[in-house]
Write a structure and sequence with these properties.
Blueprint (H helix, E strand, L loop, with lengths): L3 H15 L3 E2 L3 H7 L6 E5 L2 E4 L3 H23 L1 H11 L2 H4 L3 H6 L7 H14 L2
Antiparallel strand pairs: 1-3, 2-3
Helix pairs in contact: 1-3, 3-4, 4-7
Length: 126
């Protein structure tokens, strides 16, 4: 089963190329990737964006994520996605669904839905 990153990664890469964005976690990486004469700003998470493109990149990332979520739901179904995220966050070991609930932000899933699927997994072992 695919993850959300599988649905969004290529589109994000294209967005970054179109708006001359890159990731840099040190001054050396920044200097290696920047275009001479351009002004950049950090928008968080190591993402460096050419000044003036911050809003377009933010909106683009938001739109790509929303589209990826729709594709994920259409291809996998919400219950399977909840199970995937429960497994990904090892809830059977931690007994804590909070990280799973957080990871499903944007999917329209409540903590009650996640708990119901978790209880079913516990009960059936599936």
């Amino acid at each position: 089963m695919k993850y959300l990153t599988d649905y969004v990664q290529a589109k994000q890469t294209e967005l970054f190329k179109r708006f001359d964005c890159f990731f840099a976690f040190s001054n050396e990486q920044y200097e290696e990737q920047r275009t001479e004469g351009e002004n950049y700003t950090s928008v968080g998470g190591g993402l460096i964006v050419r000044r003036g493109n911050e809003d377009a990149v933010s909106k683009g990332l938001s739109d790509i994520r929303a589209e990826g979520i729709k594709e994920d739901i259409a291809e996998n179904g919400i219950e399977a996605i909840i199970r995937r995220e429960l497994n990904n966050h090892e809830v059977c070991y931690t007994q804590d669904i909070s990280d799973t609930v957080d990871s499903l932000e944007g999917y329209g899933v409540s903590s009650e839905q996640v708990m119901a699927v978790y209880r079913n997994v516990e009960r059936t072992g599936e």
